[in-house]
Amino acid sequence: MKAVLNPEAVLAKYPQSLPRYTSYPPANHFQMQGGLALREDFTAAVNVAPAISAYIHIPYCDRLCWFCGCHTKQTLRYDPVHTYVTALIREIGLWQQKLSRRPRLSRLHLGGGSPSLLQPDDLKRLRSALDATFEIDGGTEVSLELDPSDVRDGSIQGFVDFGMTRASIGVQDFDPVVQEAINRPQGYDVTRSLVVALRAAGIKSINIDALYGLPLQTMERLQKTITQVIEIAPDRIALFGYAHVPWIKPHQKMIRDEDLPDTRQRFAQSRTAAQMITDAGYEALGIDHFALPTDNLAIAANEGRLNRNFQGYTDDEADILLPLGPSSIGRFADGYVQNEPATGQYIAKVEAGQIPFTRGIALTADDKMRGWVIERLMCDYAFGFSELAERFGPRSQGLVELAERIAHEDRDGLCEVSDGLFKIEPGAWPFARIVAARFDAWLELAPRQYSKAV
Ligand SMILES: C[S@@+](CC[C@H](N)C(=O)[O-])C[C@H]1O[C@@H](n2cnc3c(N)ncnc32)[C@H](O)[C@@H]1O
Ligand code: SF4
């Protein structure tokens, strides 16, 4: 008989940390020098691709939020940022020399850290370098992550002149008690005014990031924040669970363990917030994104075109992501490559004329197949056996057998197989990472490196 889902029992049974599956294998399995070995193959792939996407990492912020899990460093002076932009321009120039043509960019995303720190003059010279190396046209989506506290007179015009078409704004939580516990003061009015100003400047698509599971974040405080986020009416909302990994990010030790909600409270927070957001007319996409039905991401999800990448969910269909800046991860059909993570060493490498790839991994046929299954589960909560066979041929039979075994042995009501489809039950969608992990052949090799699965 089919098991009935009991969320409380699932939470108790699977307390372990799991990857977020923004790549497969997850980035902690990339090998030292693995990126260097893939440099020529990656370049050859870029040279024949109809379009590529690029990610630029800005590894600086003018504040350090205690909860932050991003690769960034606080700087109170602008000089290091200016010097860093010069290195980025050098890196882009290295690609210009290496490529045999000027590839079209379908997407350009600036993340961090805080790209909103960049002053208009630096954005201008960065854009000139990009234009010299890539074709950026009216169809290119240019998105920037913005911290409202960085925005000054002239900042928005600088972003618009750079070509920004989409903005992503960090909110986390508006409650002053929570903000103090995470060292991130940020007024609701400041955030709202920024959204109004961006819209007035012609930015049509705006995302807001909110977090649950933060220290001292009660259900009431979270509900108030979500109400305020909905009032601002962004096109998209990303609702992430706070990943507490102080063994990787030592500044998170500023957050007291006893102030954190437990797993059951986190789950209740995530469900309540998700319900409020969907009640307000947003569609739930994958495990942590929401979008208005008119937004491209919602349209893509309804057409089965949602993909997962290092920024979360995307409708980008380019097969290649070019990484720029320290720690940035790139992707192509045969593997992942990652730039040197330490900013000083990254600058030294590009100044010495080297494309700064360091870590990376070449994908085996098995990785590609499992990666496709995991991406479909994280995006659509299902995959079809016939599509798997069409894509990967007879070798897919092993994974079909694994899927049937997982569904057959499921005592938690998480998944089932019917009509050639492996699917996660709708009530179990918040547990997609737990089901995806059953297809992860790398998991045993790194049991304690991830954040909570819910
Ligand atoms: C690079 S920041 C966004 C831009 C800008 N620096 C800001 O904070 O407004 C990217 C997003 O990652 C999320 N994030 C950062 N640290 C996190 C953590 N430890 N767990 C979960 N999400 C986190 C936050 O929601 C944050 O808005
Ligand atoms: S959350 Fe944003 S502003 Fe805060 S430290 Fe992280 S990257 Fe910087």
CATH level-1 class of the largest domain: Alpha Beta
Number of helices: 16
Strand content: 15-25%
End-to-end Cα distance: 27 Å
Shape: globular
Whole-number average pLDDT? Answer: 95
Q: Look at the structure and name the CATH superfamily of the largest domain.
A: tm_1862 like domain
Number of domains: 2
Low-pLDDT stretches are: none
CATH topology descriptor of the largest domain: pyruvate-formate lyase- activating enzyme
CATH architecture term of the largest domain: Alpha-Beta Horseshoe
Number of E-state strands: 21
What's the arrangement of strands in the largest beta sheet?
Answer: 10-11-9-8-7-6-5-2-14
Major pleated sheet: 9 strands, mixed
Are any ligands bound, and if so which? S-adenosylmethionine, iron/sulfur cluster
Q: Taking Cα atoms only, what radius of gyration do you get, to the nearest Å?
A: 22 Å
Into which percent range does the helicity of residues fall? 25-40%
Class per helix and strand makeup: alpha/beta
